[in-house]
């Protein structure tokens, strides 16, 4: 196969990575943008979505498409509920102080990982894909499910944008983001908004995990790479900027696909980390972030 088809394959793989990364990083960016909380447990919520998807695939009878559809609806709801409970029980009591919430979410990360280890076990376990067809290109065949992942991620991200920009709930979130004290003075229940935002961010990570787990495998330590790459994407795109997150996810995902195909996956992570260092030196607020006053 010539260089061109290899490049096309690398770009298609990178697009899948970018789609899943955009979903995961959007949840992290949303939580920081509105709550000013650096959620170190975000990768654990990703992992929890994948592990729950495996449990659903074992418990729901019928074809894989049915269990996958149930997992795609049920797992984000469960993970979101856990996140909302954690926000109410822990982060709210810390008054969302930046240093305290970082330590608290680190603790939450370890609690969720150890809980998954206890109930799920240390082994990686596969989840059957709901679609098994392949698209035949002139040079190679490609998984139709991977393209479906890209389409599904795009639809979810569009729904998130519509919610934030064109609904009353989105208006309340943005008002709370600008000034939570003023929002509280106007009768907005800021605590409920924060719990909802934290749940929404975790739910986005869980959706990403459910989509990717048929391609990868569920494992109790699988949240590390998504957490690292999500932080890289959010820093490059700009903390709290959804547009910047999407652009950075596309750049990092495509570069990861190309570098991993032609060189090595480790080199892709090194390049992404160097890109973060360069952004922090030249433009600390990120590509689309606002400079602090």
Task: Describe the structure in brief.
InterPro entries: ABC_transp_permease, BCAA_transport_permease. With 293 residues, the chain is mainly α.
Spell the H/E element sequence: HHHHEEHHHHHHH
The poorly predicted ranges are none
Q: What oligomeric state best describes the polypeptide chains here?
A: single chain
**How much helical structure, as a percent, in the residues?**
over 70%
DSSP strand content: under 5%
Total helices: the number is 11
Number of domains: 1
The biggest sheet, with number of strands, parallel, antiparallel or mixed sense and barrel status, is: 2 strands, antiparallel
Mean pLDDT: 90
CA gyration radius, whole angstroms: 19 Å
Distance between the termini: 54 Å
For the largest sheet, list the strands in their spatial order: 1-2
Structural class: mainly alpha
Number of distinct beta strands: 2
Rough outline: globular
Subcellular location: Cell membrane
InterPro entries: ABC_transp_permease (IPR001851), BCAA_transport_permease (IPR052157)
Keywords: Amino-acid transport, Cell membrane, Membrane, Transmembrane, Transmembrane helix, Transport
Pfam family, one: BPD_transp_2
